[in-house]
Design a protein that fits this description.
Length: 123
């Protein structure tokens, strides 16, 4: 099992930026794809981005493409989500997850989750 812990959330104005981090411990970090999901109040958890084990390829939801960037540092056992040009509709709890393939975009495909970090975009 992989243990995951997110950080970096907070309150930001529309158009601003935040960088989320997700530190991993437990089973070998490089064996797994990593993903970010988010969940707004009253809504289902939705896919945001995934990244391959190697970090060479990543995939994004259409709603964040061009604004968010997922990356990973395998030496630090950490995955990041750089979020730019934030919009009020990006407000949610953001979760990182560990899974077998970066091609998977459903929450049920991921076996390990962090506790989440709140991102609020508001003026």
């Amino acid at each position: 099992q992989v243990q995951l812990a997110e950080s970096g959330g907070g309150l930001v104005q529309p158009g601003g930026s935040l960088r989320l981090s997700c530190a991993a411990s437990g089973r070998t970090f490089t064996n797994y794809a990593r993903a970010w999901f988010r969940q707004a109040p009253g809504k289902e958890r939705e896919f945001v981005a995934t990244i391959q084990r190697s970090g060479l390829r990543s995939y994004y939801a259409d709603s964040v493409k061009g604004r968010f960037t997922i990356s990973r540092d395998n030496a630090k056992n950490t995955v990041y989500l750089q979020m730019n040009s934030l919009k009020p509709e990006d407000t949610a709890v953001y979760y990182c997850a560990s899974g077998p393939s970066a091609l998977q975009q459903r929450p049920r495909d991921y076996g390990s989750w962090g506790q989440g970090t709140q991102v609020t975009v508001s003026s």
